[in-house]
Amino acid sequence: MASNAQQGSAAKPGLRKPVFVKVDALKPGTNGHTLIVKVMSSNTVLQKGRSVSQHLRQTRIAECLVGDETGTILFTARNDQVELMKPGMTIILRNAKIDMFKGSMRLAVDKWGRIEVTEPASFVVKEDNNLSLVEYELVNVVEE
Questions:
Q1: Distance between CA 56 and CA 49 in Å, rounded?
Q2: How far apart are CA 24 and CA 68, in angstroms?
Q3: How many Å apart are CA 50 and CA 46, to the nearest integer?
């Protein structure tokens, strides 16, 4: 704090060190995850929009299977994210969240998060533990 006062700048909180989580630690309805994953596959599920006008953006959505040494999960890539998600790439997902789609988990990065391409990882992806294949059901618990 003293060094900030000496520089004459406003007191700014320091950046927190990212806490990297593994795929098997992801739970429904959680957010703020930072993880390093390898892209296994990518297929475009929606591509619409007009090329007539430049200000009307084209909407593209791709489902990409990503994973690490603990498991895999489907990642929903939107618009500009689709180009980054090439099979074989290693990426860092920052501030990722879990969306529920038809009762199963999907990993997503919205406008508050970031996708960074990084150097190839040394881990081998555990492909037999796909968290997106687990179906969840919302149950209301009545407390007495």
A1: 7
A2: 9
A3: 13
The reported pTM is: 0.74
Length of the chain: 144
Distance of alpha carbon 114 from alpha carbon 119, whole angstroms: 16
Average pLDDT over residues 26-37: 88
The three-point CA angle 118-116-22 to 5° equals: 80
CB 106 within 8 A of CB 136: no
- Measured distance CA(97)–CA(131) in Å, rounded: 14
pLDDT tens-digit series, residues 43-53 = 877 766 655 45
For 125, list phi and psi in degrees, rounded to 5. Answer: -70, 130
For residue 56, pLDDT over 50 is answered with yes
Residue 25 is given by DSSP the state G
Helix H segments across the chain? 2-7, 81-84
